[in-house]
């Protein structure tokens, strides 16, 4: 990054120690971490030189970033044992309450043993605390003695996302996390809350394997470094206080069985969340243990066989900004769709009546970017949403946005869902080629995304207010005229009259 000074591999710092660009960061430890006073190098008494940007390199010199960093880009992808008889120890990053009799409950920080090669998303494990065995979600644990097992290690998250979490209201000055650098994927960054901003510090290594932020002080491990900066700033903007808290991730399916068709008797409806053109949405419990959202579809809305085919594709699409589909009930009508539960409901209601009313321009742009990320994933998989709008975006903890109902428009019966006046077709969000000729492509979703951006920036206002569907379909000439009079290049701007 431009604000971080660097040297070539042949240069040494002011203490005479050479930094090695090929020194592996070796994030996975092979022995228990012990703490000792940080090693000092010549130049400790020299004044610190702080960069003025939000991305900081402390000290009079810095080294080329290391290569060979070993980390999991997906915090939910702890590596399994590599041999059938190998035992490997793991640490629980989150608490988990058993959902079935075959599951294993455990507390955060509990040590677990996994035996043999297990490539699925649910592992058979044994708790060293309770001595019980059962299935555990793979993305709830990390290999013991690895940096992924530390509360402060967030893995490969974007810089902007780190800032969003650190600036949450519950966090105080000094709240911090360590992440993979956004600009250099083979190095790490320390991100620290400082008032209403976040400071980012590059973590580098010397060829002897030691870590440093300031070249005056080196540490044998990241744990040693964190412990040091918890007691003194030593050049940082704030003393490190506590790791940035985060929510437990979704599991891959409801249980290790990953049953696609579940029994209706396992669902309990607890609270109605809303209703729409094609059914209702309820908060509920699966198996008496797991909070879920249950979408009920009105009888006759769609052909069951068509829905099952579409839902099987939908379940395979997984992304942080797509609503996770857990299971369905299709053996009788009404059809039930069981998904993860999002705390704040639809984006439309969030913008009109929730905290979204007070969203800043930066928070609004963040929501737009999250939705873009989810839609880009759908595009990569050649999947068309067909009904992208604020009402079909759901909001969770930390203002996480997730695209919902992708693909459902494809299987709704044609006589219910078409562009005729008076029907339930969302023409104000629909691209002209789709509204007029029923031609849907990825580009149709792009048009709808533009309308969705308008909804976000206007706090949930109705697009084309006061206009009927028929009027909206014939605005092409007016749009061209408006763009001509708003031409930014003076000489290209249309004349009056």
From TrEMBL:
UniProt keyword annotation of Membrane present: yes
Principal cellular location given in the protein's record: membrane
Segments for region (Disordered): 1-84
Biased composition (Polar residues): 17-34, 50-67
List of residues binding ATP: 295
InterPro entries in alphabetical order: Kinase-like_dom_sf, Non-receptor_tyrosine_kinases, Prot_kinase_dom, Protein_kinase_ATP_BS, Ser-Thr/Tyr_kinase_cat_dom, SH2, SH2_dom_sf, SH3-like_dom_sf
Domain SH3, chain residue ranges per copy: 85-146
Main EC class the enzyme belongs to: transferase
Family: Belongs to the protein kinase superfamily. Tyr protein kinase family.
Protein name: Tyrosine-protein kinase
């Amino acid at each position: 990054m431009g604000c971080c000074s660097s040297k070539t591999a042949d240069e040494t710092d002011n203490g005479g120690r050479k930094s090695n660009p090929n020194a592996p960061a070796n994030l996975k430890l092979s022995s228990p971490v012990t703490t000792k006073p940080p090693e000092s190098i010549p130049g400790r008494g020299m004044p610190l030189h702080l960069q003025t940007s939000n991305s900081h390199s402390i000290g009079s010199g810095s080294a080329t970033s290391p290569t060979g960093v070993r980390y999991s880009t997906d915090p939910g992808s702890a590596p399994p044992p590599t041999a059938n008889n190998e035992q490997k120890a793991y640490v629980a990053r989150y608490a988990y309450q058993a959902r079935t009799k075959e599951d294993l409950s455990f507390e955060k920080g509990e040590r677990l043993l996994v035996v043999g090669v297990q490539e699925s998303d649910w592992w058979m494990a044994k708790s060293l605390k309770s001595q019980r065995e059962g299935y555990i979600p793979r993305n709830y644990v990390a290999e013991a003695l690895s940096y992924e097992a530390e509360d402060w290690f967030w893995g490969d998250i974007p810089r902007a996302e780190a800032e969003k979490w650190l600036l949450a209201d519950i966090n105080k000055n000094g709240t911090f996390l360590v992440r993979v650098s956004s600009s250099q994927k083979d190095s790490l960054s320390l991100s620290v809350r400082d008032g209403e901003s976040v400071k980012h510090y590059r973590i580098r290594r010397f060829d002897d394997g030691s870590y440093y932020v300031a070249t005056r002080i080196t540490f044998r491990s990241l744990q040693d470094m964190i412990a040091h900066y918890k007691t003194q700033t030593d050049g940082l903007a704030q003393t490190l206080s506590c790791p940035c808290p985060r929510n437990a991730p979704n599991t891959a399916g409801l249980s290790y069985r990953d049953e696609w068709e579940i029994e209706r008797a396992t669902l309990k409806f607890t609270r109605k969340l809303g209703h729409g053109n094609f059914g209702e949405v309820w908060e509920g419990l699966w198996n008496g243990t797991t909070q879920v959202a249950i979408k009920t579809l009105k009888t006759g809305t769609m052909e069951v066989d068509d829905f099952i085919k579409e839902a099987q594709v939908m379940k395979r699409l997984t992304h942080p900004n797509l609503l996770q589909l857990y299971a369905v009930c299709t053996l009788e009508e009404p059809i039930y769709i069981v998904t993860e539960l999002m705390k704040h409901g639809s984006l439309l209601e969030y913008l009109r009546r929730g905290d979204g009313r007070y969203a800043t321009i930066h928070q609004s742009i963040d929501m737009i970017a999250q939705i873009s990320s989810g839609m880009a994933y759908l595009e990569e998989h050649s999947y068309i949403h067909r009904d992208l709008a604020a009402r079909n975006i759901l909001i969770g903890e930390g203002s996480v946005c997730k695209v919902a109902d992708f693909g459902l428009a494809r299987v709704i019966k044609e006589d219910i869902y078409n562009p005729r006046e008076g029907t339930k077709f969302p023409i104000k969000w629909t691209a002209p080629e789709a509204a007029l000729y029923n031609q849907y492509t990825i580009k149709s979703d792009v048009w709808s995304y533009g309308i969705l951006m308008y909804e976000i920036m206007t706090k949930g206002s109705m697009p084309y207010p006061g206009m009927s569907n028929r009027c909206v379909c014939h605005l092409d000439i007016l749009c061209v005229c408006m763009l001509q009079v708003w031409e930014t290049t003076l000489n290209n701007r249309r004349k009056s009259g």
